[in-house]
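Most newcomers find our protein records easier to grasp once they have seen one. The structure tokens are whole numbers drawn from a learned vocabulary of backbone shapes. The record below serves as our worked example for the rest of this section.
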Amino acid sequence: QVQLVESGGGLVQAGGSLRLSCAASGSIFSINVMAWYRQAPGKERELVARIASDASTNYADSVKGRFAISRDNAKNAVYLQMTSLKPEDTAVYYCYCIARLDSRVINSYQYWGQGTQVTVSS
């Protein structure tokens, strides 16, 4: 019932910046957690950054100090500002959320975006 649509991916030179955006749509009561994951060829999908409803954040060690996650609750959106990009950041980046669909049903469900390619050239 929830669709996540990412945008902002593309090709950038090492040292450059990109800003990824993800907007959730559908019948949403609330979104507890929003996050960005990435998966490089031949590697497992890994958590890049996450932000909870209380604005607490977590980052992978490899991106600390370079990436910043933020959210706009009014827009059901999450953003990932990426700076000082490195070739090893090249991956498909996936938006993720945990959302409730009904105010009277406490169950929450996981949703994934389709992924957006980020390629960093050296």
